[in-house]
Design a protein that fits this description.
Its EC number is 3.1.3.64. The protein contains 7 helices and 15 strands. The protein is of the alpha+beta class. The chain has a 5-stranded antiparallel sheet, with no helix packed on it. A 4-stranded antiparallel sheet has the order 6-7-8-9, with helices on one face.
Length: 337
Amino acid sequence: MTTNTDVYDDLFLYTTNEKFYVEAVTAKVLLIVDRVNQHIFTQVGTANQISQTAIRRKIWGIVGTIKLLSCRYLIVITDAKRIGTIAGQQIFQMTATDVIPYSKSDLHLTDKQIENNTTYLEMIKSVLNTPYFYFSYTYDLSHTMQRLHNTTPEFLQVYKLMPLHDRADSRFIWNAYLLQDLSSRSEHSNVHRAGTRLFSRGIDTNGNVSNYVETEQLIEVNGDRSSFVQSRGSIPLFWQQEPNLKYKPKPQLCSHENHQIAASRHLDAQIFHYGKQILVNLIDHRGAENVLEKEYRAVVSRIGNQNVRYEAFDFHAECRHMRWNCEVVPLPALPVY
């Protein structure tokens, strides 16, 4: 595939027995997916070149493709809603998808394979039904406005010429793996260590922490914009909190792992992406969580990175009895970098 930096928002999917056609109406270009040999290519053209028997439907975009036991599947966005704008650019939330098989039957599978394939398919659909996937045709949601503002004009010139899938921050592109067949190069990284509470905790040897989230708060008044960026994630130590019948299972440190090396890698990555760091630790200073607070503090001290400041704040002690607006929160104590 040749690289194309254009993004189209007026799309129709045409399905025949042999091919999928995605028509970009305003550009008179077709993306063609061969359902037999799985080749994907583009060509100039319109729907007039497609068989009249093709099934036509409006789509909002392509999530990607994925190979399961039965065959490869094409995943498309079938519905979305506009949720707002950033810097004048429209932002959408994905509300419905379809997972369409390349193969028209599963006769080549055993009964067990059919059962497994159905399970995998339902797992994918369950993830796609998560109501918090966002996209934009004109704005790169993977980078904060703050990050782009702090880059050089020369970089921004190159950045604007790159395809979206090349310039995006792959840490936050949830369909990066699914786009491999549709992009001109393979993505080598993906979203790391996502998971639900209790089932995914701590850090891995590469410095990736569980349930990592980057949040940017934007305020725009009369054309002026302000950006505040913070990131959060699981405490960067090797630990686990296996679910049981208790509301709050006891966290367990992994004593055989090297916490310092992994945490140092995590902090180096944080500094690379965001600059100097203030680590605000909100866990309890007493009880079962105290072991995590003490070890986290000790590890940061041993690392001794001058670009890192550790601040422990016992949130539940200071704001007990659900007094979330408690006025004793010592925000002025945090240093300004």
